[in-house]
Amino acid sequence: MRADTHIISEIMRRLGSVQQKIPCVFMTEVREEPSSKRRFQHFQVVASEELSPRALESRLESAVATEKLDGTCCYVSVFKGKPYLWARLDRKPNKQADKRFKKFQLSQKSLSEFAWNVEEDFRSVPDSWIPAHGVQHQNRQPVPDENGHILGWVPVENNNKQYCWHASAVNYEAGTALVLKPHADNRELLEISAVPLVELLEQTLELIGTNISGNPYGLGSKKSPIHLLVPHGSVPVRNTPSVNYEQLKKWFQESEEGKVEGIIWHCINGTLLKLHRHHLGLKWPDGDTFLSRRPVAVSFDWTVYDFEVQPNDLFAAFSKLAGQRFEHIQDIQMET
């Protein structure tokens, strides 16, 4: 038992940092058929019943399984001398370079033989853009991944309309973020609170809400949108079967706890592995999601901060709900 506790503690220490694309726990193949995940994509990636080599060497029996949330990935790091929220912004090739890359892919040659010119082949990004941790560099230039993308981040500034929903979940004057995570004293209960950004430094989080990814969790409304940050690895999934194709597919289809977009396994060797419902040919979302049906408490008071807030500020709106508990997170209604 002591060894198991040590393993879990080691894994938990590393939760909350997702900088790179996470591979599937099973071997995958590409099928030439319309994607059930992305509109206008004429192929889809599906899982086989065979575990990937990485999964076989990663001690999955000791891994911590957490919910894969359907939102957009964010990162907290220092900008302008203080903790800031950063949005995912991947550098992608321009049309001409992308056409050349796809033609090379069809040739079935090794992708390592493809020559990129990062300065000329890629679309421009803001000067504040930084590559994600783990991006390889060559001659001081970031190297694109196997998909021809350079993963990275851009700081969320209040005057950037492109990231207005990101900005609604942070307040830089108070140095806080609007966070959803399991309650510290009751893991069955979710909690919405204002968390100091400094406590989230170098973590990644998922932004979910009204205007993100089609809002599968039923948060807020068009008139009163709600957007929340969820630390990666903070929401465990329960009653998952062993990592077996048929058992997992049945769990997604029949279990109440299986009404999630997917699973992320956090392994003791640092490997992250995932399984998405679409890997199994399953619809998402399919009715109410498990997260949307969970109870939630609002447990912070925005009035303790000594400055004037705007009438439409999301923090102020939640402050009015301080101390309240809702049977389901999708039941939260803001005062209008």
UniProtKB/TrEMBL annotation:
Molecular function GO labels: ATP binding; RNA ligase (ATP) activity
Superkingdom of this protein's organism: Eukaryota
Any single GO BP term: RNA repair
UniProtKB keywords: ATP-binding, Ligase, Nucleotide-binding, RNA repair
Iron-sulfur among keywords: no
EC number: 6.5.1.3
Ubl conjugation found in the keyword field: no
Signal peptide interval: none
Pfam families for this protein: RLIG1 (PF17720)
Protein name (database record): RNA ligase 1
